[in-house]
Amino acid sequence: MNPTLQTLTAHRSVRAYAAKEVSEETLQQVLRAASRASTTGNMQLYSIIVNRDAEMKRKIAPAHFNQPAVTSAPVVLTFCADFRRFNRWCRFREAEPGYDNLQSFMWAVVDAVAATQNACIAAESLGLGICYLGTVTYNAHELIKIYGLPEGVVPVTCITMGYPAEQPPLTDRLPMDGIVHREVYQDYDRERIDAVYAEREASAETLRLLKENDLPNLARIFTERRYKAEDNVAFSKLFMKVLEEQGFMNF
Amino acid sequence: MNPTLQTLTAHRSVRAYAAKEVSEETLQQVLRAASRASTTGNMQLYSIIVNRDAEMKRKIAPAHFNQPAVTSAPVVLTFCADFRRFNRWCRFREAEPGYDNLQSFMWAVVDAVAATQNACIAAESLGLGICYLGTVTYNAHELIKIYGLPEGVVPVTCITMGYPAEQPPLTDRLPMDGIVHREVYQDYDRERIDAVYAEREASAETLRLLKENDLPNLARIFTERRYKAEDNVAFSKLFMKVLEEQGFMNF
């Protein structure tokens, strides 16, 4: 296995960081790698907000439900879908941009996530640990206020970054033939679902979680504890309002 | 620079492929690296459709506006945001999923793109070339029919893959301080826009494009030729309908 494949397959989320600073040079290498990711029509439809300042990390922490990694990580990177820069450029050149719509938002999201993932892999190749914070889309409206994001800009991913103070075990993944489809989509009947989830459901980690949560199976831990319908609906409404207010729903 | 940083920073889109097959073993390495990407709550909210069959590539080509790479690449990978598998698992376990909404779609999109980018980097580390096809979200409705994608599944990225028959030059990128913001968002005034786009606007490639398109500046090539408002609006309407029909707009 070549060194890049080793880095890619050794990923684990690191949430506890050593008290070692990330040098500006290392950060630059990470950011530069991010900027080399594929991007729609070479428009680079994203911006990266770097937080190193302790006061700023305290300010954004509530938007991330005060996950400890936000304030303990030396670096927090927030990747935004960003059509602001491109639209401003167009207007200053007397070109009329038509990018205030869902399709344009999707390009910018794909650009932002591809850049994020490049940043993660670069960081890990340099001995850093990273963790994605899914909370970024839940409370995008709050981050927009704190960061002062203008129309055309929506935060879509956030990663914490620093030298690891822990080496968590690799998390499991579903069997490859549970996620790969040959030529066309092969739908999931009960037999296939049972096979795909068998190992995960029988794991010691699952058994521990069932006991801790007093629930009969792992699926119900997801639906009743981790990702509840009422929360998903509430955060979807908030996020749709964000897309409207940031100018991506005009079509 | 370590080998992984070298791979990340050497990316160029490759659209012309040598007549050399991609072995099943190499493909497996690429897919396995994809599966190790960060994923929301370890739900792996994506599926990967592998096309190697010439007949299938011919079938999907029109949905990609017949870009030659689709039929000439030995492998085409389509990454779908996929809540179908997870929802089926929940239902077979008497857990009631609440993932038919925008927030859930966003998790699945981030998962799918992170996996895609891992696949790209793995492929490039193995000597393959890749190219993203943005057309996948334009004509998602057609791909849904061809692949037989059920409710909960939406194609979000597509890459063609094969051994390169060309080595295109690195494309330019905006200066790093044009895309990186320290602590908060620094908005773009005319002076900053001029600085950020100066090098690109003065490049030989831009001058060539202006002549070819008979337009006074690069921005107008984007707004009047490449990504026109009327097309973006039409494809946004189609994609919103896809999100509704595939069950992500119930909130």
What is the compact description of this entry?
Chain A has 251 residues and is of the alpha+beta class. Helix content of chain A is 50%, strand content 12%.
Q: Give a quick account of the main beta sheet of chain A: strands, pairing sense, barrel closure.
A: 4 strands, antiparallel
The structure class of chain A reads: alpha+beta
Termini separation of chain A: 48 Å
- Spatial strand sequence of the major β-sheet of chain A: 1-2-4-3
What Rg of chain A, in angstroms, do the CA atoms define? 20 Å
Helix content of chain A: 40-55%
What is the architecture of the domain at 3-168 in chain A at the second tier of CATH?
A: 3-Layer(aba) Sandwich
The 3D shape of chain A can be described as globular
For this structure, what is the CATH homologous superfamily of the domain at 3-168 in chain A? NADH Oxidase
Element order of chain A: H for helix, E for strand: HHEHHEHHEHHEEHHHH
**Largest interface (CB < 8 Å):** A-B, 121 and 121 residues
Report the sheet-strand fraction of chain A: 5-15%
Describe the protein.
- Chain A is α+β, with helices and mostly antiparallel strands and 251 residues long.
- Chain A has a domain at 3-168: NADH Oxidase (3-Layer(aba) Sandwich), CATH 3.40.109.
- Chain A has twelve helices and five strands.
- The first copy, chain A, has helices spanning 3-9, 24-35, 54-60, 68-72, 84-92, 102-125, 135-138, 140-147, 190-202, 204-213, 218-226, 229-245, and strands spanning 46-51, 75-82, 129-132, 153-162, 180-182.
- In chain A, α2 crosses α6 (102-125).
- Chain A is globular, with a radius of gyration of 20 Å.
- The N and C termini of chain A lie far apart (48 Å).
- The model of chain A has no long low-confidence stretch (mean pLDDT 98).
- The interface between A and B is large, with 121 and 121 residues.
